[in-house]
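so im writing up the methods section and need the DUF3231 family protein record in one place, dumping it here so i stop losing it
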Amino acid sequence: MENKQISLTAAEISTLWSSFLYDSMTIQVIRFMKEKVKNEDIKPAIEKAYDIALRHLFEYEKIYHMENMPVPYGFTEKDVELGAPDLFTDTFKLTYILHMSRVGMVTHTASLALAARKDMRQLYGSCLRNVEELYQLASDVALAMGLYLRRPYIPYPKQVSLIHDKSYLSGMNPMTSHRILNSIEISHLSLNIETNQTGVMLTSGFMQTAQSPEVKKYMQKGKEISKDHISKFSAILLKDDIQAPISADHAITDSTTAVFSEKLMMFHMSLMSTAGFGNYAAAAAASQRSDLTLLYEKLSLQIGLYAKDGANIMIENRWLEEPPAAPNRDQLGKNKK
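--- predicted struct ---
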């Protein structure tokens, strides 16, 4: 059966819409980085990221036109000022590509799993392969330059062991000592430190270039949240004599000239919040110590409230596009009368 005879499902419409907004935003950030990058080792990763985002956006638009659906507004070259002074160091540009390629692998995997129609499965499979290639390239460059953020090491296990005591799952009693972290818990704590370090840098850059006091205040709050979460996660690792990941020389410049539209910056923070929420949910599900599960749930609530504040700002300024929705059957019935 031809694809044109099969309508897109609600899941396929939603992933197409989300993917379009994600890539149309990302391409504007990378467009600026591509214009400013000077390091010849980092430049190929930036250029590849830009080319991938362009190809993805082209494929999304083809489907919108084929299905006779309106193309979302998304983001355009009007949302970035290429003539502004550089806001990010080249090392942060590489870190940004690494972070966004990880986010891309997660989102495209989810989109592929939700796709039914053959062309949609092929699209998201191709998108996934593209961002995986980008991640491999950016990782190789970071390792070669000594910029890859290494996560903690532990000794190799010498034998296979079974859990014999239910106390292995405990951690809430302040009167008893916690068991030592296992490798799964260490990996999630480390990953969440790393993503929050990226969040600190982004919010710092957005805060110093935002024009409205409202957006500046929002970015300042996001920076404080990220720094607080880094502190909490690092303290848990250090309590077991495990070194927390230390960021390399990732920084922003001292430029205060507006680079990105406030609509783009607010949407970017919404994306970061969504990714962080997903990371914490995965960490809570995988962690076997009850105190860690509770901590992730508590911090997830904080991120959720922060994201809601951001959504309110975007709605008030008419920056937030509405996702495709099912028709209101009750309202349609009333209109018919």
